[in-house]
């Protein structure tokens, strides 16, 4: 019978301890990936927010100077 690489087949082929260890490792890898993605998203939001504040500050100072 050919061996499948599906997670179901892997679970059937591996002893319980190895299956648990594999699941734990994969879950940890997923968690690390999610944390990196969240970190990148937060960085992008900070950059965007900073750029928007700078833009608004420039607009405000140009508005005040045009009123004089």
Characteristics of this structure?
68 residues; mainly alpha; 2 helices; 87% helix; rod-shaped
Structure description:
It is a single chain. This protein has 2 helices and no strands. Helix content is 87%, strand content 0%. The protein is an all-alpha fold. It has helices spanning 7-13, 16-67. It has a domain at 29-55. The longest helix is centred in the middle third of the chain and has 52 residues, at 16-67. The protein is rod-shaped, with a radius of gyration of 26 Å.
Structural topology:
Layout: H1 7-13, H2 16-67
| Quaternary structure state of the chains depicted | single chain
Stretches with pLDDT under 50, minimum 5 residues: none
**How far apart, in Å, are the first and last alpha carbons?**
86 Å
Element order: H for helix, E for strand:
HH
Mean pLDDT over the residues: 78
Structural class by secondary-structure content: mainly alpha
What is the CA-atom radius of gyration, in angstroms?
26 Å
């Amino acid at each position: 019978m050919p061996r499948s690489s599906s997670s179901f087949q892997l679970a059937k082929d591996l002893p319980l301890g190895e299956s648990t260890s594999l699941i734990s490792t994969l879950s940890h890898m997923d968690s690390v990936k999610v944390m990196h993605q969240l970190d990148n998203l937060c960085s992008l939001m900070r950059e965007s927010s900073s750029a928007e504040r700078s833009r608004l500050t420039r607009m405000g100072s140009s508005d005040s100077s045009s009123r004089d």
